[in-house]
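We emphasize that the prediction below concerns an isolated chain of 363 residues; any contacts that depend on oligomerization or on bound cofactors are therefore not represented. The input was used exactly as deposited, without trimming of termini.
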Amino acid sequence: MRIAMIASFWPYIFPSGSAIYAFELSKRLASLGYEVHFFASSGGLREFNFVSSNVHVHLLKTYGVLLKFNPVVYIVPKILEKKFDIVHTHSYLYFTTLETAILKNIKKYKFVLQFHGGLQYFAAGRRDMKVLIKEFFFDTIIGRYIVSRADKILSIAKSDIPLIKRKFGANAEWLPNAVDPERFSIRYNADDNTVAYIGKLEEWKGIRDLIEIFKSIYDLVKNVKFLIVGSGSLEKLVRKSRLPIKMYRHIPYNKIHDIYKEISILVLPSYMEGAPNVVLEALACGIPVVASKVGDIPEIIANGKNGFLVDPGDVKTFSRIICELLKDRELRLSISREAKNSIREKFSFDVIARKVDRIYRNL
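Result of the prediction step, given as a token string:
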């Protein structure tokens, strides 16, 4: 079969969870014998075409980026050019996904739509105009149209499946997020005291809470170090905190595993998530994760076994658990072992690719 895999950006330049997932899945499907064409934004006004890991990569001219995450790419000629058996898009929020839904009227391909979160918002009462527009305009009109055109709907978050049904009147199948355990098979350093956050520096990621968590830990634990990888609208707020935070604005996808070697504990205080890549990658490295009990994080983390779950906004509990981990080396090592085992058994890309193979053949 000839497959068109459509993502946002080329993950080696602009890493995002859904784009990484799409390309890693493309590589596994190519190894199973599929002819896979991966389409994404080049991030600029030039187009690039090449083959990587037996995947035909098409990085398209980009005319802008809406709301800092949605590339404006005209993919129509590329889809019309070849006869694709299946077009598999990642996230219903992208402009390219809308183009794919419209084109289905012309080209008779099977349209697979995969949700990557972004369906709900738990921001401690903060609901700005962009969120309201998304919920009451985009979701009810454009989102419903896109979902209605899909032949198969998938979701990386099991917790989003009832929401997809309620918002769009459609049934979805759970296809979990995944990671390459071999790529993140590093030796966990239990003798360091680095607490890290990796992700966007935005309100919905709980960045204000993150600053308070770091301040609390800094007052209680000697020799603690902090690391943040990411950028966003709250970056200045983080820098004004006057905490000893080592910051990286951007790490290429092919270098991110080196960052995990510096981390002792990962914290993710989000108010909204699907099934975040950073949690899977950290667990695959054997890094204890303390994360909000939102989205599909409870499907990945068994509280107290391979990581810890905390109610969003509960800064006090976040701080307490992280302090306990920093002071108890044996606890960290126990969590580390369980974390690695849980990822290899349930959330590897090889496992997910076999499930996608079955889905495609049924279509």
